[in-house]
TrEMBL record:
Protein name: Calcium homeostasis modulator protein 2
A GO MF label: monoatomic cation channel activity
Lineage, opening ranks: Eukaryota, Metazoa, Chordata, Craniata, Vertebrata
Chief site of localization: membrane
Compartments it resides in: Membrane
One BP annotation, GO: ATP export
Top-level taxon of the source organism: Eukaryota
Membrane topology of the entry: Multi-pass membrane protein
GO cellular component terms attached to this protein's record: plasma membrane
Similarity annotation: Belongs to the CALHM family.
Source organism per UniProt: Eleutherodactylus coqui
Any matching Pfam family: Ca_hom_mod
Length: 319
């Protein structure tokens, strides 16, 4: 039984690790849905006033979209790899198409939360109803009082709708929510179609076989995990060494003492080595052998682009 449980845990670990991007995007989308629901309940209050309705409704959808997009870009490690590449190598290792694809990859990952926010906002319809209410055409409603102006029409989304307009309120809200939800479903269809076409394009244009690309993904995940874990241990042991040198002793618990004894760290890595493994990376080969990362290239003691004489960029790092 224990062996069976262990095997199942390993299977689920590999499954989730191989689909980390999909799972991350799903979690971001779920978090955005929750935030949108909370925002609608707590923070959304239509002003029910001409001109303000439109601006407030537009801001309720647009401002969170902009903020979420910028946060997505900031939290994407490839953004800062790109910055490092521009600062240190001036994008010499990247062609224009590769650079364009990298920008598209960063923007695509950052767009998950904004698109989710927009879709949920449109399907709920509250912000759209608030924004569009003041632009209603009274002539499209039978027996609508023609003496009512925009000041009264703008109050349809609110509780203080004039008594003589209450009979039209349900129809108005239904029409506007229909428009809003129609736009939401259209947006879902466009996004789904775009993702499908991009995935097809990616696999059609990739120079790697399906299995090699899957291996490359696993390699990147393992390298990142091991690098971060090792960097944490290295930093802790180096810090302990320096603290001991200053104070004459260092306060470590039992596990940290064992770690410091097992892993001997004398000095930090020099800056040129950090520069070699920092920056964006394009899949390359050297004499037919793949180079899966900057760290892989550095470990092979290759200089420059690390390719054959006629080597060229073969595939952008998938993110």
């Amino acid at each position: 039984m224990a062996a069976l449980i262990s095997e199942n845990l390993k299977f689920f670990s590999l499954f989730f690790r191989s689909r980390d991007v999909m799972i991350f995007n799903g979690l971001v989308a779920l978090g955005t849905v929750g935030s949108q629901e909370l925002f609608s309940v707590v923070a959304f209050h239509c002003p029910c006033s001409p001109e303000r309705n439109y601006l407030y409704g537009l801001a309720a959808i647009g401002v969170p979209v902009l903020v979420l997009f910028l946060v997505g870009i900031i939290l994407n490690n490839n953004t800062w790899n790109l910055v490092a590449e521009c600062r240190k190598r001036a994008m010499k290792n990247c062609s224009i198409p590769a650079t364009f694809l990298l920008f598209g990859s960063i923007a695509g990952r950052a767009a998950v939360a904004p698109v989710t926010w927009s879709v949920i906002s449109l399907l709920r319809g509250e912000a759209y109803v608030c924004a569009r209410s003041e632009f209603l055409n009274p002539l499209t409603f039978q027996d609508f009082p023609l003496d009512k102006g925009r000041e009264d029409i703008a109050k349809f989304p609110c509780k203080d709708t004039p008594a003589e307009l209450l009979i039209f309120k349900e129809e108005v809200i239904r029409r506007l929510k229909y428009e809003s939800q129609f736009l939401g479903w259209i947006l879902i269809g466009v996004v789904a179609s775009t993702i499908f076409l991009l995935k097809c394009l990616h696999h059609c244009c990739s120079p790697l076989s399906y299995h090699q690309e899957a291996y490359w993904t696993q390699y990147r995940n393992c390298e990142k995990e091991l690098f971060n874990r090792t960097a944490e241990v290295h930093a802790k042991v180096l810090a302990a060494t320096n603290v001991k040198q200053f104070f004459g002793f260092v306060a470590l618990d039992k596990e940290e003492k064992e770690m410091a004894t097992e892993y001997q760290v004398e000095e930090a890595q020099p800056s040129p080595q950090w520069n070699e493994i920092t920056g964006l990376y394009l899949y390359r080969e050297n004499k037919g052998f793949p180079l899966y990362s900057r760290l892989h290239k550095w470990a092979k003691k290759l200089i420059g682009n690390g390719t054959e004489g006629d080597g060229k960029e073969m595939a952008l790092l998938a993110v």
